[in-house]
User: What shape does this take?
Amino acid sequence: MRLAGVEAALLRLMRQSPAVEPPPAVEVPPAAAASPDMTMRYLDVALTDLQREFHLAHSQPRHLAPQPRAHIVSPRSGLGGVIDSLLATQHLLEMFRRTLPPGAPRRCLDRLSNRLTKFLSETKKLNAPEK
Assistant: This one.
């Protein structure tokens, strides 16, 4: 019953809308239309050509995008390395936060920065020598 109502609505819309030309049909070579095997072979060749062109274009880009500069952190192991990573993360977060206009995303990153400060404080306490 619901389907009949949908069909009726579609028919009304089709009658009201101006005639739209159908999209152009994809030309299939006559040999490919002869049998399913030939069609699959044609599609396989087209896919291979497409992949080759994609990889060629990807390996020789017309425009080089600038590579982002990464903050260099000396790799230390243990708790010192964790502290270094938290400090680097806090710095990058702050640099990004300052680029944002005042608003909800900036306030959210400010709260995350405060949480990182608390993480750093607790982590440094773990690194302190026991009395």
Observations:
- Residues 79-127 form one domain.
- Residues 36-59 form the longest helix (24 residues).
- The chain has a mean pLDDT of 75.
- Helices lie at 2-16, 30-34, 36-59, 79-99, 104-127.
